[in-house]
Amino acid sequence: MDDRQSAGVTRSAELPEVQLTGQGGILLTLCLAILMVQVDTSVVNLAAHAIGVALRVPMSTLQWTVDAYNLTYALLLMSGGTLADIFGRRWIFRWGIGLFTLGSLVCGLAPNAGTLVLGRVVSGTGAALLLPSTLALIRVIWLEPRQRAHAIGIWAGTNGAAFAIGPPLGGFLISVAGWRSIFLLVIPPGLLAAWLARMLPESAHPEGRRLDLPGQLLVGLGLGGLTLAVIERGDFAMWSAVLGGLCLVGFLWVEKRTGETAMAPPTLLGNRALTGAMGVAAAMTFGMYGTVFLLPLAWLRSGALSVTWAGTALLPMSLVFVGFSHKTGAWSHRFGARPLMTGGMALIGAGISILSYTQTGRPLWLAETGLVLTGLGMALNTGPVLAAAVAAVPPSRAGTASALANTARMVGATFGVAVLGAVYDGAGTGNFGFSLAMRIGAGVVFVGALLAACPIP
Asked: CB–CB of 447/346 below 8 Å?
């Protein structure tokens, strides 16, 4: 039976296959794919300065190099979750790996900025298919809550491992082989993950599910219009923002009329536990992604560090993330998700606040203090916030809920890079602009901490 035929299995039919499949091998395959995606994300931030110099492009193009991926990822995550529910999580997972690897190849061979941005769009499409499938598979395979929390903790820790591996490796590759090498780096693990994906059990819940094309179009125009207005600014920014806002209003109206077959069903959007987790996730990535985009760029533009040392200087944050994120499953089970989410967000806000008092990342010891606190906060928050989102819904909506939670993460990331990058660029890319951008990022994260602290009625 091929993958698409097997995608029609029901939950009762899939359990024996899951029991016969080694859960360790399954988790390894899922985490390898996540490692591939996140290594790519971390090294692209480090390569922004080199890309700008090599292709002679302005700050806005560097923002698009990052946000073309982030925005596509955010826009298609909800549809990616729906497709996983309909056609099967394994089948969509394999398509995601293929597209992501293809996009990386296009970026590595890109002759100009336009082709590079196009490759980032293809990679973002692959990531949008891949990521919700991984969380949905965890949700339906690990049935016991404590074991599931442990699996999600390892999944989140893989993100930290990518942050640990990516910057120093990326800095070395850029200095030795140029910025193109960072995209070609992910192709071998992409091929390996595609081969290992054969061991994954298939699971699907297609009943009552369909692709919501009107909703996808409206949310795409909405978020795209707002991002364009922030990054490009200029005379048309107001009209782009107005169009984006109107499209998002239209999206909510269409989703309400469509009902439970919508891309974002009203019952899920009305689920306060889920939407609260989405808000916390968006605030976290707004501050964090904006910071890891601007800080290396500031170091390199000011000549404070070489690209190799800039990658190494990001390592303490990553190591703290790796060192603590795998513990959050047990801590969440013992203390509850909300204290970890609140404390984690507060630590991220404090770390970014410290960065705002540096002189574009100097002195280095003060910047490292801020990065360590940020890494600790990310470790405490990432696993619990995603676990809270997925646990808020029944298994039949696991793909959609994971897509919504990760859409919120990537929307926050998109606007973090867009808004903080625009503030930094608009203020002259000096210390004032850097400090102002960091303070705005910290403020948004502190709002997320308040949201995490609020009890859900």
From this structure: no
355 CB contacts (<8 Å, ≥6 apart)?
291, 295, 361, 367, 370, 371, 438
259 backbone dihedrals φ, ψ, rounded to 5°? 85, -145
Angle at the Cα of 107 from the Cα atoms of 42 and 231, rounded to 5 degrees? 65
Q: Are 293 and 286 in contact (CB under 8 A)?
A: no
Q: For the chain, which domains are there?
A: 3-9+19-200+263-453 (1.20.1250.20), 217-250 (no CATH)
Neighbours of 397 (CB within 10 A): 25
**Cβ–Cβ under 8 Å, residues 294 and 440:** no
Q: How far is CA 104 from the centre of its chain?
A: 17
64/68 Cα distance (integer angstroms)? 5
Distance CA 31, CA 38 (A): 10
Angle at 325 between CA 45 and CA 375, to 5 degrees: 45
Q: Which residue has the tokens 């513990």?
A: 327
The Cα-based distances of 198 to 29, 30, 138, 141, 342 in angstroms read: 10, 12, 16, 16, 39
Structural tokens at position 382:
């990432």
Per-residue pLDDT, 88: 81
Which residue has tokens 């899951």?
18
Q: Which of 160, 233, 181, 202 is nearest to 43 (CA)?
A: 181
CA-nearest of 201, 169, 176, 171 to 36 is 169
Give yes or no for a contact between 454 and 265, defined as CB atoms under 8 angstroms apart.
no
Task: Tell me how far CA of residue 122 lies from CA of 71, 125, 402, in angstroms.
Answer: 11, 5, 21
The rounded mean pLDDT for the chain is 84
| Residue 436: burial class (beta carbons within 10 Å; 0-12, 13-18, 19+) | middle
- The tokens describing 120, both together, are 């980032």
CA dist 74 → 80, 81, 124, 222, 231 (Å): 10, 12, 8, 12, 17
> What confidence score (pLDDT) does residue 342 get?
92
Q: Say yes or no to pLDDT of 129 above 60.
A: yes
Lowest mean pLDDT among 289-298, 317-326, 327-336, 445-454: 327-336
Tell me the pLDDT band of 416, cut-offs 50, 70 and 90: very high
Gap between the Cα atoms of 198 and 202, Å rounded: 10
pTM comes to 0.84
- Based on C-alpha coordinates, what's the Rg of the chain? 20
SS3 state at 38: helix
Output the pLDDT for position 439: 96
Joined tokens for residue 347: 């630590």
Q: Pick the closest to residue 456 from 292, 344, 355, 338 (CA basis).
A: 338
